[in-house]
Specification:
single chain, alpha/beta, 10-stranded mixed β-sheet, 11 helices, 10 strands
């Protein structure tokens, strides 16, 4: 398996260089296109606040300001793409409706790369991250310092459909890993599952993997993070939002803990 198109959403600001560098690090081993998608604030988002059939001076000024900010952001994004130095990088500048365009670009990409800032719910792309993972259900990488292809990769496995989808869609990365370790924490899950089944699945597809059972009791996310640190894993593959989003939001959950803790880069799939 291989990837042909890696997508990096850009806000036209300071974080663009970081996400472009991470996306280029993912794209290069596959000789893939890097689709740098500039997603500005959408003028259409102002419409519900303007009142039906009315366009006052304040509203017009606000719309003009958004258009100017979008143009400035597009120029900054263009400069960042040129500076990233990846030959197959291509800039896509979205116009209203921005979210529809961003969704389509994600659907036509193999994986979408976000910064840690967006994944933690901060910055202009925080909502786009949530929608890409949970609503669009696109394979998503949360890029943290040191992200690269070819190191140790850990795969969180609990037998659920989210974990299964993540394990399947991450296969191109797993094929290039120096070591793949399947992590199972049975005491932290209500499911019955066997890591050896996933190991066989990988073996049949040319990926050699080990299985490690985390026997300790406690929070699954923390057990996974501790294991990744011990193994020197630079990437953790995991299912995302295995419970209803409202429940995850109110009570937290494994996904939220992984996103809000310093640790390896994440490959997530819902």
């Amino acid at each position: 398996m291989s990837w042909a198109r890696i997508m990096a959403p850009l806000a036209g600001g300071a974080g663009d260089e970081q996400v472009l560098a991470a996306a280029a690090a993912i794209a290069a081993p596959f000789d893939a296109e890097l689709a740098a998608v500039h997603a500005p604030a959408d003028v259409a988002d102002l419409m519900p606040w303007m009142g039906e059939g009315f366009m006052g001076g304040v509203q017009i000024t606000a719309m003009d300001s958004l258009r100017e900010a979008a143009a400035e952001g597009a120029r900054a994004a263009k400069a960042a793409v040129a500076a990233c130095g990846y030959a197959k990088a291509r800039l896509v500048s979205l116009e209203t409706p921005v979210w529809a365009g961003l969704s389509m670009e994600g659907r036509l990409s193999d994986v979408v790369v976000f910064t840690d800032e967006a994944a933690r719910g901060r910055g202009p792309l925080a909502e786009a991250f949530q929608q890409t993972v949970a609503d669009e259900q696109r394979p998503t990488i949360v890029a943290r310092p040191g992200l690269s292809v070819g190191g140790v990769v850990a795969v969180a496995w609990d037998g659920g459909k989210e974990a299964s989808r993540a394990a399947r869609t991450a296969q191109p990365l797993l094929e290039k890993a120096s070591r793949v370790v399947i992590l199972c924490a049975p005491a932290a899950s209500s499911r019955n599952f066997d890591g050896a089944r996933l190991q066989t699945f990988f073996t049949d597809r040319g990926v050699k993997a080990e299985v490690e059972v985390l026997t300790e009791n406690g929070d699954a996310a923390q057990l996974l993070l501790d294991a990744c640190k011990r193994l020197g894993a630079g990437l953790l593959v995991a299912g995302a939002f295995g419970h209803p989003r409202l429940q995850e939001y109110i009570f937290g959950g494994t996904t939220r803990t992984l996103l809000n803790n310093d640790g390896p880069s994440l490959f997530l799939s819902h």
